[in-house]
Amino acid sequence: MQVIVNISLKEGVLDPQGLAIARSLNDLGFQEVDGIRVGKRIVLEVDETDEARLHQRVAKMCETLLSNTVIEDYNIDIPDGQ
To answer: CB-based contacts of 80: which residues, under 8 Å, 6+ apart?
Structure first.
């Protein structure tokens, strides 16, 4: 099954990459951009048919390797129709 994991910095964590992009966009004439937060999107193909177990295993992957839970939040999305 396909699983999409979205990882983003927690509120209050400085995002220097987002600040640099926002500054560059403003310099390029896009003054309407007020702020940007940069994250990661990871698409996994996992050999698991039980959705509850799939969610549990992917959460373990996130906690173990895919995200730094001290400064990042993650969201697991299992698209419908699989």
So the answer is: none
